[in-house]
Amino acid sequence: MRRSLKLAAVVLSGSLGIASLAACGAKSTDNNTSSGASSGASSVKVGMAYDIGGRGDQSFNDSAARGLDQAKDQLGVQVTEAEAKTGEAEADKEARLKSLVSAGYNPVIAVGFVYQAAVEKVAKENPNVKFAIIDSASDTQPSNVTSLTFSEQEGSYLAGVAAASKSKAKHIGFIGGVQSELIKKFEAGYKAGAKSVDPNIVVETTYLTTPPDFSGFNDPGKGKEAAQGQLDKGADVIYSAAGSSGNGSIEAVASKGKWAIGVDSDQATQPALSKYKANILTSMVKNVNVAVFDYIKAYKDGNPLTGVKNFDLKAEGVSLAQTGGFLKDIQPKIDAATQAITSGATKIPTTPEN
């Protein structure tokens, strides 16, 4: 049976004391083997620093957590997890990463673009430690940092095709958690996909916060309010790319009997959202778990991934969930759009058109 222990109760190697790492919200998972895992504990110790919302957000962080769990179960690696806090300072992110390094974790995986500056700084200070950052890439990051990125605009394009095809009002919505370059990729693809079906369709757009306020990824109340506003304007399909804030959006949309589109994980299958599954048209799944597992496996095998590793539609890095079977009647449109993207015939914008 798998057990989770606060690091305050675990003996750690390295120069950092237990109390310091526990103060950063970290917890360690003991190493048991399961089918496919080698016998005995691996010497590889993987540290994961979550974005706000953490494990249990039913979305982005949970997808990363599934990859970590798979690596633990199948590869036998030791793991620990560190949680972020809403409204924290840049120094807090740096301290979290330094704590993992000092406790002997290598590689260290940072979940989310908000870690970019912290990862660059801590990686430069620790050239013998490998780092991965999800959803961000920089020309200035050191060689011991690997970027795990996704073609969110491609999956979102398919979500737009689905939304426009299902909308009876010819009026749909997009809710972004934080107005950032990353989330604009979701918006751009969604709008382009919708307009490929109906050039005259109306697309409402709402962002919950702007940097440096990243609470838009962890405020279901704001997501619910934004969705209610779009519903009041006539939207009957709403796509939210907003982390756990999107949970509130889904609730609002379902209460009105309209269609919601989830993000990152197949949200119709998430425990906290399953009661709304009859109104979740699909989810734009970002297979962060695949990227996390592939990165850890490559490191354990002695062939670490380097530079920027992008997971696009062709590589099944993004996809549309089929739970509920609500796409069956429009599947030919989805398939045609998929073929056009993977063949290179259709290029998807990464910035929204005005």
Describe the structure.
By secondary structure, the protein is α/β, with parallel strands linked by helices. The protein folds into two domains: 4-150 and 289-311, Rossmann fold (3-Layer(aba) Sandwich), CATH 3.40.50.2300; 152-285 and 324-342, Response regulator (Rossmann fold, 3-Layer(aba) Sandwich). Helices cover 36% and strands 20% of the residues. The protein contains ten helices and 14 strands. The protein has helices at 18-23, 60-75, 90-102, 116-125, 152-166, 181-197, 220-232, 245-255, 288-300, 331-342; strands spanning 4-6, 26-29, 45-49, 78-82, 108-111, 131-134, 145-150, 171-178, 202-209, 237-241, 259-264, 280-286, 308-311, 318-320. The strands form two sheets. An eight-stranded mixed β-sheet has the order 1-2-4-3-5-6-7-13, sandwiched between helices. A six-stranded mixed β-sheet has the order 9-8-10-11-12-14, sandwiched between helices. Strand 3, helix 2 (60-75) and strand 4 form a beta-alpha-beta unit. Helix 2 (60-75) runs parallel beside helix 9 and helix 5 (152-166) packs antiparallel against helix 10. It starts with a strand and ends in a 12-residue tail after the last helix. The model is unreliable at 1-23 and 28-40 (pLDDT under 50). Belongs to the BMP lipoprotein family. It holds the Pfam family Bmp. This is BMP family ABC transporter substrate-binding protein.
